[in-house]
Amino acid sequence: MLHLIIADSEVEPVPKNILEHPAVVNYAKRRGKKPEEVILDSTYHHAALKKLEDGNRRGRPDIVHFCLINALESILNKEGMLRVYVHTRNDKVIYIKPETRIPRNYNRFVGLMESLFKNKVVPPDLELLKLEEKTLNQLLEEIKPDAVFIMHEQGEFMKPKDFGQLLKQFKEPAVIVGGFPHGDFKSKVDGVKISLYKEPLMAWTIVNEVIVNYENAIF
Amino acid sequence: MLHLIIADSEVEPVPKNILEHPAVVNYAKRRGKKPEEVILDSTYHHAALKKLEDGNRRGRPDIVHFCLINALESILNKEGMLRVYVHTRNDKVIYIKPETRIPRNYNRFVGLMESLFKNKVVPPDLELLKLEEKTLNQLLEEIKPDAVFIMHEQGEFMKPKDFGQLLKQFKEPAVIVGGFPHGDFKSKVDGVKISLYKEPLMAWTIVNEVIVNYENAIF
């Protein structure tokens, strides 16, 4: 069983200090929501992001969307051998049941995240997604993996297929992929740093490489 | 070099006979476009789709978006060993330069497709995407692959890693993946039908499996 953690993901409600920024107010109005209910999105809140610390990397629910769409529709997940978690800025953790069908439409996915940050659980009956206050380290203490790998530009280089073989040697390995567009992890975690390519890769590309190569090793 | 063709993709401008449907008219108005300029989208034109032949599978630019986001950010593409083509309903072919950075935001991607269907080339100077009238067979005649594989539910079962090894035996193999949500290809093409899993897979999942396993075979 592979535990895949998308960590320090840039998904969050619009922060307090830009709630009155015109880019945010107009966007919320257009969508019929209150400014404090909408998820920060760099495509639409670009002007407001300039006022935020780390503004050049925040507001990227699209990265999480791509990672989840790929992970949950993978052969590995269909075979019941994958658990996916999304850890976000401000230390929330989203638990996702393996049978969840993530909305294909981006706007609906954002709507789902808004509902999740508001209600902590969606949908109320099936509880496919659940949001809890938790740091990355607390999540790892809970999962209790027998190995922790951090996908990192400065990690030890390893061919993707060799990494699949390495993962196979553990019963419950955890692989941590950064859910941000560039820069480094903000959370401090102990683990073996691994790099799969000579250049930085997008989060969803790493997700695909890890999942397919783990499948090849275990099936 | 792998030639990846997303075929019979459900991307098209809104067809004539539903241009006056309220679902289409309101959507176009909201986006500040003419109804004939917008791309059919099942999320927003659901009511209108019921009036169309094959209405239950049409209007899926999201599938093409996921396939392109994965393919173009893959290690294979970064290494210059991938060419991607999108063939659509009504026999258009979209050529995509390998260096293209597809918009991550879905709404911007749809805007790009609208611009492409209108102007045949985007952006005017770099010509990263180009649209031509062409059948799937005409595209294959042009590419001249030395093998053609069709990813198909009823194809010969092969483990994904074995399929990677098979592809490696050719210099310029073409792999055809259906760019539709369910059902069969509408185009008739000769090729070896291959199935990678006992259940149907999403188009982007097949794209990921094919690309990563081809990488593993050739690198």
UniProtKB/TrEMBL annotation, chains A, B:
Q: Name one Pfam family in it.
A: EMG1
The UniProt entry, under InterPro entries, shows:
Alpha/beta_knot_MTases (IPR029028), Rbsml_bgen_MeTrfase_EMG1/NEP1 (IPR005304), Ribosome_NEP1_arc (IPR023503), tRNA_m1G_MTases_N (IPR029026)
* Site feature: Interaction with substrate rRNA: R60, R101, R104, R108
Its EC top class is transferase
**Per the UniProt entry, what are the Gene Ontology biological process annotations, in alphabetical order?**
rRNA base methylation
Q: What is its EC number?
A: 2.1.1.-
Single GO MF descriptor = rRNA (pseudouridine) methyltransferase activity
Q: Which domain of life is it from?
A: Archaea
Specify which residues bind S-adenosyl-L-methionine according to the UniProt entry for this protein: G178, G183, L196, Y197, K198, E199, P200, L201
Keyword Phosphoprotein set for record: no
Q: List site positions: Stabilizes Arg-xx.
A: D62
Keyword Methyltransferase in record: yes
Please list the reactions this protein catalyses.
Answer: a pseudouridine in rRNA + S-adenosyl-L-methionine = an N(1)-methylpseudouridine in rRNA + S-adenosyl-L-homocysteine + H(+)
Keywords on record: Methyltransferase, Ribosome biogenesis, RNA-binding, rRNA processing, rRNA-binding, S-adenosyl-L-methionine, Transferase
Q: How does it assemble?
A: Homodimer.
Annotated PANTHER family: NEP1/MRA1, RIBOSOMAL RNA SMALL SUBUNIT METHYLTRANSFERASE NEP1
Q: Which family does it belong to?
A: Belongs to the class IV-like SAM-binding methyltransferase superfamily. RNA methyltransferase NEP1 family.
- Job description of the protein: Methyltransferase involved in ribosomal biogenesis. Specifically catalyzes the N1-methylation of the pseudouridine corresponding to position 914 in M.jannaschii 16S rRNA.
**This chain belongs to which protein, by name?**
Ribosomal RNA small subunit methyltransferase Nep1
Give the organism the record lists. Thermococcus barophilus (strain DSM 11836 / MP)
Gene that codes for this?
A: nep1
